[in-house]
Amino acid sequence: MTSPVRSFEMFTQDLHRLKEWLQQCRITPVAMESTGVYWIPLFQILEEAGLEVCLVNAQHVKHVPGRKSDVIDCQWLQYLHSVGLLRASFRPEDRVCVIRSLLRHRDSWVQMAAAHVQHMQKAITQMNVQIHHVLSDITGQSGRAILDAIVAGERNPVVLAQLRHSRVQASEQEVMKSLVGDYRREHLFTLR
Over 90: is that where the pLDDT of 127 sits? Predict the structure, then answer.
């Protein structure tokens, strides 16, 4: 007789062994908690195998008294699922999950980029380089050309001001004036 409770490690081959064990036991509905992102590989393996996976928000079953171990926890989930007391969380179809994953990744890149731009602005402010007052965007064509030249070692405001694009509304004199600063090594390092 197969033990009603078994534990598996979280390596991919072990997750496949878990799926095979469930199939050998002729289990088709499966309930599992969603904690962090740890549930995703197992969910996908079970779903691809054709099992009905009820993904349960861990917060909905968290406050049950007496749950002291993973074994008791899984048995409690199994009981609740068998009597129909678990509400499945929404999980869109796989195509939507793929797009959502990519969009979330892109969003985190955009957020990180914004934080890095703030670091650049802080570094140039600490050097009293006021280029952000004469350019609308220090990450635009003119701003990047000027900042790249500063990082490469150029300090002459006349040379730096000539790097501005012709569409910049500030005059060359204003740009030159904004580029006179205290180019300290630690702030240049941060800017780089």
Answer: yes
62 pLDDT band (50/70/90 cuts)?
low
Cα(30)–Cα(140) distance, integer angstroms: 52
Rounded to two decimals, the pTM is 0.61
Whether residue 68 has pLDDT greater than 80: no
Q: How far is CA 6 from CA 19, 52, 93, in A?
A: 12, 19, 29
Q: Which residues pair with 54 in a beta bridge?
A: 31
**Three-class HEC string of the chain:** CCCCCCCCCCCHHHHHHHHHHHHHCCCCEEEEEECCCCHHHHHHHHHHCCCEEEEEEHHHCCCCCCCCCHHHHHHHHHHHHHCCCCCCCCCCCHHHHHHHHHHHHHHHHHHHHHHHHHHHHHHHHHCCCCHHHCCCCCCCHHHHHHHHHHHCCCCCHHHHHCCCCCCCCCCHHHHHHHCCCCCCHHHHHHHC
What confidence tens digit (pLDDT) does each residue in 160-176 have?
Answer: 999 998 888 888 899 99
Q: pLDDT band at residue 1, thresholds of 50, 70 and 90?
A: very low
